[in-house]
Amino acid sequence: MTNKKTNYFTELDQVDVTKHIEKKGNFSYLSWAYAVRELKKRHPNATWTVHEQATEHGTAPYYKTEFGVFVKVTVTVGGIEMTQIHPVLNHQNKPIDNPNAFHINTSIQRCLTKAIALHGLGIHLYAGEDLPTSPPLDMMQQKELLDLIKERKAEKGLLSEITGQISNGTINQSNFLKAMEHYDNTL
User: Sign of dihedral through CA atoms 128, 8, 80, 110?
Assistant: First the structure.
């Protein structure tokens, strides 16, 4: 639980999620199950709502619009609501006009994870996702980040994970400073 001196957002932002990042093609994801587990460990009263839209057959957990199909999730932590809207996408992150139940469920889980991130848990993973692809770290940046990890005597698995994230571009020039700040604060 959060103590009175710590802002809950700051507390959740300091959780190291790097070991739980999954890769599918060129995209990195934080497992929804991990996000929920870490949120509920720290805030057991946290809740979420999957919003529904009225249809001719009752209600459905998605919104069909002229722009595509979307899902909407609100996560509440300590009385603070954060809502995320997410398009229903295929495995290539392209919108689906006529999604099936699996597509909708998968998008709800992605939306849930992002709504949790709005409260701080894993939010640094999404830094720059709305920007064009960023150039990879230069040699000096790589050395600076890896030296920080080694200096803090992080476990070997974390060093390997970060090296992989540098190689695949998950950590790049657009989020380098945020990564440095994150590991400087959490290790």
Answer: positive
Report the b/e string of 84-118 with b at 16+ CB within 10 A: bebbbbeeeeeeeeebeeebbebbbbbbbbbbbbb
* First-last CA distance in the chain: 20
SS (H, E, C) 65-89: ECCEEEEEEEEEECCEEEEEEEECE
Distance CA 12, CA 39 (A): 8
Q: Which residue shows structure tokens 């190291």?
A: 16
For residue 24, give the amino acid letter.
K
Residue-level length of the chain:
187
Residue 164: which of 15, 6, 21, 5 has the closest Cα? 21
Mean pLDDT, the chain, rounded, equals: 87
pLDDT over 50 at 131, yes or no: no
Confidence of residue 73 (pLDDT cuts 50, 70, 90): very high
State whether residue 27 is helix, strand or coil: strand
Give the Cα separation of 73 and 115 in Å (integer). 7
